[in-house]
Specification:
The protein contains twelve helices and five strands. With 415 residues, it is of the alpha+beta class.
C-alpha cells in the first residue's frame, strides 16, 4: 500500500521547485477563472439576473477554496494518488456546497494527468473514471444546477483529455526507454561480436604461425641433416644445403614478423606482407623434392582469376600443411598436388604413397593439430574436407571450398 500512496523515486531540488511553480501557476489560473468564467459563459447581465446568478467577486473564502484545490500539487509526483483525492474532493465540495460554479478544474486536471503519467496504465483509467464521476456528482448536486449542467460536458472532456495526455506521455517515455535499452543491447551485441571476431582472428593467426613454423623447421631440419651427411665428402653440396636452410629460416622469420604485424596493426608500426596464395605451390613441390619426396603439381584446371583471394590463400595454407605432414610423418616417396576449379567451388587434393593415416585418435608427432586445423579452416569457409587412407595405400587430403560461401549455407556467412 505504501507504493500506491508514496512513490519512492528520488526527487532533486529542481524537481521540487518545478512542482512548486506548477502549483502556484495553477493557483493563479484558478483565481483568474474564478472572476471571469461566469461572465464569459453568460455575458448578458440581464440573463444572469434572470437565472439568479451574479458575477463572481473573489472573496477570501473563494481564494482559499482555489488554494486548497491547487497548492497540494506540490506533492503530485511524490504522492500522486493522495494529491488527486485531496484536490478532487476539495473541488467537489466547494463546487456543490458553496455554489462556486465558476471554480476552476485546473487542480484536479493536473492531478489526473500526473497519475496517468506516473502510475500503471490501469490506474490511469481508474483516475480518469473517478474524476469524471466526481464531476458528474458535483454538477447534479450544485445549488445552481442549470449553470453547472452547462459546464458538465466541458469538464468531462477536460478530464478525459488530461488522462489521455498523461497516458500518451507515459507510453512515449516507455517507448523511448525501450529504444534506449535496445540500443544498449545492440551495442553490447556489437562488442560481443567484435570480441568473437578478434578471438577468431587470433585462432587464425595462431594456426598460420603453426603452419609456417612447422613447415619451415621441417625444411631446415632436413637441409641441416643433409649438410651433416655431405660436409665431409661433398662440402659444396653441404654449403648449398646450409644456404637453403638459412633462406628457409629467413623466410619463416619474415612471415612470422608479418603475422606479428597484424597483431600490432593498431600501432601503425608494422608493414604486413601480402598473404601467400596458390601461386606459391611450386615452392611446396620444391620443398617436397628437397625432402626426398618426388612431387608433381597439376593445376591446369584451376582458374585463379575466378577464385576469391581468401579462398586461394586458404587452399595454399591447406596444401602447405599437407606437404609438411608428408615430410614429417608419411615416409612417402611420391606425392601429388592437384588443384582445380569446379562450378561454384575450388578443389584441392594432396596425396602420397606413405604410411597412411595414424590410428584413430592418435596424435601426430610433436602434438601438432595439422588435420584438425585444415578441417576447421575449410569448415569456416563453408566447404567440405576429407582426410584418410587411400584404397591403394598412402594418405590423401581433399578440400572443396565454395567460391561464394553464402550460397553454401556457411554458418558464419551471416555474422
Amino acid at each position: 500500500m505504501t507504493s500506491l500512496l508514496v512513490h519512492d523515486k528520488p526527487m532533486t531540488l529542481t524537481d521540487w521547485l518545478f512542482d512548486l511553480v506548477i502549483a502556484v501557476g495553477a493557483f493563479g489560473f484558478g483565481c483568474l477563472q474564478l472572476t471571469l468564467a461566469v461572465n464569459l459563459l453568460i455575458p448578458d447581465e440581464a440573463l444572469r439576473r434572470l437565472m439568479g446568478i451574479d458575477a463572481m467577486v473573489p472573496t477570501a473564502a473563494a481564494i482559499l477554496a482555489v488554494a486548497v484545490t491547487t497548492l497540494p500539487l506540490v506533492l503530485r509526483r511524490r504522492c500522486p494518488w493522495p494529491t488527486l483525492l485531496i484536490v478532487l474532493v476539495a473541488w467537489a465540495f466547494f463546487q456543490s456546497q458553496m455554489g462556486a460554479v465558476s471554480m476552476s478544474l485546473i487542480g484536479p486536471l493536473v492531478a489526473v494527468f500526473t497519475v496517468a503519467y506516473s502510475c500503471p496504465r490501469a490506474e490511469a483509467a481508474v483516475a480518469g473514471i473517478a474524476a469524471a464521476g466526481v464531476v458528474v456528482v458535483a454538477a447534479t448536486t450544485s445549488p445552481l444546477h442549470a449553470l453547472a449542467s452547462l459546464t458538465l460536458v466541458q469538464n468531462i472532456a477536460f478530464v478525459a483529455a488530461a488522462a489521455l495526455a498523461g497516458y500518451a506521455l507515459q507510453a512515449r517515455q516507455d517507448y523511448l526507454r525501450a529504444a534506449e535499452e535496445r540500443a544498449a543491447a545492440a551495442e553490447r551485441t556489437r562488442e560481443t561480436e567484435a570480441e568473437r571476431r578478434v578471438e577468431e582472428e587470433r585462432v587464425r593467426i595462431a594456426r598460420e604461425v603453426h603452419d609456417i613454423t612447422a613447415h619451415s623447421l621441417s625444411a631446415v631440419s632436413i637441409q641441416a641433416a643433409a649438410a651433416e651427411r655431405l660436409i665431409d665428402r661433398d662440402p659444396a653440396a653441404a654449403r648449398e644445403a646450409i644456404a637453403t636452410a638459412r633462406g628457409t629460416a629467413r623466410e619463416a622469420l619474415e612471415e612470422i614478423r608479418a603475422m606479428i604485424g597484424v597483431l600490432r596493426a593498431g600501432d601503425g608500426a608494422a608493414e604486413v606482407r601480402p598473404t601467400e596464395g596458390t601461386d606459391r605451390l611450386g615452392d611446396l613441390v620444391a620443398y617436397l623434392g628437397g625432402a626426398g619426396v618426388e612431387a608433381s603439381l597439376a593445376q591446369e584446371g584451376y582458374d585463379r582469376a575466378a577464385v576469391p583471394a581468401f579462398v586461394d590463400v586458404a587452399l595454399f595454407g591447406i596444401a602447405r600443411e599437407a606437404a609438411t605432414n608428408i615430410v614429417r610423418h608419411a615416409g612417402a616417396a611420391h606425392a601429388t598436388i592437384r588443384l582445380a576449379t569446379e562450378p561454384g567451388a575450388a578443389v584441392l587434393a594432396v596425396e602420397d604413397d606413405g604410411r597412411g593415416a595414424p590410428a584413430s585418435g592418435a596424435p601426430t608427432s610433436g602434438g601438432g593439430h595439422g588435420i584438425e586445423g585444415m578441417r576447421e579452416r575449410v569448415r569456416l569457409l563453408g566447404g567440405d574436407f576429407e582426410a584418410g587412407s587411400l584404397p591403394d595405400g598412402g594418405f590423401g587430403v581433399r578440400a572443396r571450398i565454395p567460391l561464394d560461401p553464402t550460397r553454401e549455407g556457411d554458418p558464419h556467412a551471416a555474422r
